[in-house]
Amino acid sequence: MAALPFPFALGMAPPAETRSPSLEATERDAFARLYATLAPRIHRFLSDLLFDATLARDGTQETFARVLLHPHLSHDASRVVPFVFGIARNVSLELRKARVRAGSATGNEPETIAPPSACPEASFACRETAAALRAGLAELPEERRAILLLRLDHGLSYDDVATTMGVSLAKVKIEIFRAKEALRAHLEASK
Amino acid sequence: MKHPADDLYETDLEDEDDDLVGLFRAREAALPAIALDVAAVHARATELRAEARRTWAARTASRVATGFRDRNGAWLSSIGGLAAAACFFLSLGAHESAFAPSDEREAAVGFCPETVEPRAAPGNLLSVASFSRAAQETTMSTDVGVSDARIVTCTLFGP
To answer: Highest-confidence range of B40-49, B59-68, B81-90, B96-105, by mean pLDDT?
Structure first.
């Protein structure tokens, strides 16, 4: 093993996120593809966690900026999706904390549910369903909601959900079971 | 090893045909496309790198300086300061744009901002204390947009 120059020999090598941003062309392409593929999903995930369009946009940008600090991951398709969702979850928690701080300082309600604007105006049934789904999601605790979304909306495997959330596989199964029950009950009640 | 919950919720592993999945799919199909701005992401990533670089450099320099002060006599504190300085400048020099002006406010402040005073005492050119202060001020310097290398140079050698 080659000797490291001072101060890296003292075990003080700079962390990966401080490295030069000079990405190879292939890395830039890989990141661009990753961004085009995952950004809409991450935006939807953050929107469902935060219920705030502006925060979801900011959070999406922040998430991918952090992904860029680890450009080598763009090449590993099997690891990258749970990794990006994990970053998005952390970003959402940070944004949530910041919003609570700002909300408590200004006296605003920290969490508000955005009006359902996803469906075309003509599709009344679609809008109603989207609104009921969103309201049902809003009633779930944050962690349970995130687990349910990762599995049902974003199709991550149970193992990947457990890795992303940093919880056990058993907990993932239990949380999904309970979240489904609660969501179905809400949808039934709203019919 | 199989967990008891595996049996209890085994059926949930087969949720591809779940009615709720259908709802999520329908909603996804109806969502409008979002505007993608890769350039903004790259710009933010550059900011994050610079932030991490400053934090790491200041922390490393401070650790080296503190270590020398705690473990060695006063006469070695100069070496400690030198080591810390070398460590700091190496860390900055290893990355591009570390010595570039951070923004326009820097030009208005001048080479040495008023907040930085020379602390190089006679006979102790690079004292650990002065370097520790420099490291601390470096982290604070982001508020006024003064580059890391410049503020340390001013602190150690004066305006």
So the answer is: B40-49
Return the DSSP state at A11.
T
* Predicted ipTM of the assembly: 0.73
A4 phi, psi to nearest 5 deg: -90, 145
Tokens of B44: 């933010």
Report yes or no: A180 and A165 within 8 Å, Cβ to Cβ: no
Of the candidates A62, A169, A183, the beta carbon closest to that of B20 is on A183
Matching CATH number, A25-107, of 1.20.140, 2.30.29, 1.10.1740, 1.10.1060: 1.10.1740
Q: How many angstroms separate the Cα of B27 from the Cα of each of A48, A126, A150, B117?
A: 12, 8, 15, 61
Which of B23, B54, B92 is the best residue to mutate to test the A interface, defined by the most A CB atoms within 10 Å of its own CB?
A: B23
Instruction: Give B57's contacts in chain A (Cβ within 8 Å).
Output: 14
39-98 of B, contacting A, C-beta below 8 A: 40-42, 44-49, 52-53, 56-57, 60, 63-64, 83, 86-87, 90-91, 94-96
Residue in the block written with tokens 């933010």: B44
Return the higher-pLDDT residue of A23 and B59.
B59
How many Å apart are CA A113 and CA A108, to the nearest integer?
13
> In one letter, which amino acid is B113?
P
Average pLDDT over all residues of chain B: 58
Contact A23, A32 (CB under 8 A): no
DSSP B119: -
CATH of domain A122-191: 1.10.10.10
- CA-CA distance, A83 to A88, in Å (whole number)? 9
Question: Are B126 and B82 within 8 A, CB to CB?
Answer: yes
- The per-residue pLDDT for range A44-102, each reduced to its tens digit, is 999 999 988 888 999 999 999 888 887 666 566 677 889 999 999 999 999 999 888 88
Q: Which pair of tokens denotes residue A42?
A: 């991450």
Angle at A151 between CA B21 and CA A169, to 5 degrees: 140
Q: Distances in Å between the alpha carbon of A126 and those of A49, B24, B78? A: 21, 11, 72
Indicate the residue type of B31.
L
